[in-house]
Design a protein that fits this description.
The protein has about 230 residues and is of the alpha+beta class. The protein contains 6 helices and 16 strands.
Length: about 230
């Protein structure tokens, strides 16, 4: 499932986040790349333990908890602390697949990366290039979203970031371990949840709302891994 989630951060929150981290000391983005990814990764990154990364990451995690669309689509069990990257001056990230397991630096905590997420912090008109290009069974998708909007996609996807030829592209990126590891099963649950909410809105007293809600939770009970 490839899903755009608008307004995870407000435009004001995104601008404040960008303003705070824009002048921070950035490091080589390859510090969090695996062996294969390091060969094609050329960007800058805010150090994971930087106080601003932790402060802004907490803001993003709080915002995700308030996003019903994110919660329904991701069914998150664990969320990797958000990281921040910057592309400018022709920097890019070639085709790669994200590592299956990520360890939170300085801890014993690991997560399985079922889903990848990019939260855009820079508006599209402020830079040229920098599209996130994701390949799936339905083709190639080129994504460049307004500040505060998020793209959620399977971490198994082959993807890249096109060169930024003007301006700077600043984003947050992170991974999610879902309660339901299989993307097909997650998609069925998301579609069912969306349909239930639509019926409940149009006909709140319809008996199908209760019946379908029961089916949803029975499927979740069968598929969840917690």
């Amino acid at each position: 499932m490839l899903l755009q989630i608008p307004g995870v951060l407000t435009a004001e929150q995104a601008a404040e986040c960008r303003r705070k981290i824009e002048k921070a000391q950035w490091v080589d983005g390859r510090v969090t790349a695996g062996h294969q990814s390091a060969r094609t990764k050329n960007n800058l990154q805010l150090a994971e333990n930087h106080p601003l990364a932790q402060e802004m990451g907490a803001t993003i995690l709080a915002a995700l908890e308030q996003s019903s669309l994110f919660m329904s689509a991701a069914l998150p069990l664990k969320v990797f602390p958000p990281l921040f990257n910057r592309y400018e001056g022709g920097q890019s990230f070639g085709n790669h697949v994200d590592n299956a397991i990520r360890q939170v630096t300085g801890t014993a905590h690991r997560i399985r990366t079922d889903l990848s997420a990019t939260l855009f912090l820079t508006n599209p008109e402020d830079y040229e290039g920098g599209e996130l290009v994701i390949e799936d069974t339905y083709g190639v998708h080129s994504i460049k979203l307004p500040a505060g909007h998020l793209i959620l996609y399977p971490a198994t996807s082959l993807h890249n970031v096109r060169p930024v030829t003007k301006g700077a592209r600043i984003s947050s990126f992170f991974w999610i371990q879902s309660m339901v590891r299989d993307d097909g099963e997650r998609t069925i649950l998301f579609d069912m949840d969306t349909a239930i909410q639509r019926i409940a809105e149009n006909a709140p007293d319809h008996p199908s709302v209760l019946e379908l809600t029961g089916v949803y939770h029975n499927l979740l009970r069968r598929w969840a891994d917690i």
